[in-house]
Every structure is written in structure tokens, then in C-alpha cells.
Amino acid sequence: MAKLRGPLFSLSAKGRFGDVALFSSWLGRPYVKVWRPSGKDSSRRQDAIHSILKRMNHEWMKLSREQRRAWQAFAVKKKPPIPAQSVFLSHAVVAADAGLPVPAIPPKGSVIVKPKLKAMRGEDDKSLVVSWSLPLPLAPYPLSLLDIWLQISRPSCRAYANHYKHSLYVPASQGGVEMKDLPPGRDYHLKARFILPDSSRSPFAQISA
């Protein structure tokens, strides 16, 4: 169990950091550990993200003073302001997970519209055909990706914001993908966003089928 001094560049930290880490204290000593839902073992996905998070923490330490200042200036613009290291990690972890270059400097902050999604059931009721349009601002970025998350529920049940699970990354220029071997007789709730090579991201769009 790691002991901390100045966690997340703050005087103290308590609670969950995304779905990755849990900050707390024991006998007045702060510590951080891998977050796991109560009563559940960690999944391969959680272990993979935890490994990436550790590597990206090392990447933060390698940044030059000028590069850290750039992230600090970028973080100050957030509302409410967020520690620069946390902002860097939020971009770097996604980039590394998607196979994109780890950003040494913040993205330019280009406004990217969320994808316009369409989804229809496959012929065997065990697949989902998803398509999307590519906004003009993404045209000069052929390496852009569509980040797809999926939630499967019983018929007519609502989708919960924290129940989506990452499914796959698809080249945005592809325009469509078929998701196969899904449980039949269920409702599929999908959300997706664009990710640019500089780690810029669009808002999520949601659709159900």
C-alpha cells in the first residue's frame, strides 16, 4: 500500500479517482490503492487501465518544466480548476489506451461536435450495426478514432450513466462498425465520442437500439 505526500498535487485527497484509484487515510496516514467495486475482483480491463495509469505517472515525471507549465495553464481554464497532473493523466491514459501518441503538451482545445449516431439490430438479434457521420473539422485528422461504450440491459430498462463499459476503438473515417456476439433479447445502450491524435475529445453522443 503506497503512502502519499501531497496526493494529486493537493494538501489531501479522499475518495475515488475515476474507476482507477481510491484515495483514503489510515491512522492519519494518506494512501492510494486500486479501486475495485465491493465484492468484485478486478477485471482485465481495470488491470490494464491501472497499468497504463502507472506508466503515465512516470511520463508526467519526465516532462520538462515548460511542458508542465503548459499543462498548468491548460488546467487553470477548467471550471472548476483541476490539478495539472490530473488533467495530463486524463488525456494521457486515454491516448495510451487507444494506441495514440502520449501528449507531451496539451491539445489545442479545438471544439469538436459529438458524433451523430445511428444504430440498428442485426439480422440474428445478436449484433448491432452502428454508423456515424464525420464532421468537417475531423477531415484533416485521418487517425481520429471513435471511442464506443456499451451498456446491455433488460428490455425497457433505463440506461445508467455509470453502467457503460468501454467496448472498442474504431477509426473515425470508417463510418460504421458491426458489433457481434451480443446477448439476444436485450436492449443495447451505446455512447460514443471522437478522439483526435492530439488527445482532444468530443462530448459523448448516446443512442439506444
Low-confidence stretches: none
Helix/strand/pairing category: alpha+beta
> Can you write the helix and strand succession as a string?
EEEEHHHEEEEEEE
| Amino- and carboxy-terminal Cα gap | 43 Å
Average residue-wise pLDDT: 83
* Shape category: globular
Strand content: 25-35%
**Domain module count:** 2
Tally of strands: 11
Spatial strand order of the main sheet:
1-4-3-2
Polypeptide structure, described:
Helix content is 22%, strand content 29%. With 209 residues, it is α+β, with helices and mostly antiparallel strands. It starts with a strand and ends with a strand.
Based on the model shown, name its key terms.
Immunoglobulin-like; four-stranded antiparallel sheet; alpha+beta; single chain; 209 residues; 3 helices; 2 domains; 11 strands
What's the SSE blueprint?
Layout: E1 2-3, E2 15-17, E3 21-26, E4 29-34, H1 44-62, H2 65-76, H3 84-98, E5 117-121, E6 128-132, E7 145-153, E8 165-171, E9 176-179, E10 187-195, E11 205-208
Antiparallel strand pairs: 1-4, 2-3, 3-4, 5-6, 6-9, 7-8, 7-10, 10-11
Quick structural gist:
This protein is α+β, with helices and mostly antiparallel strands and 209 residues long.
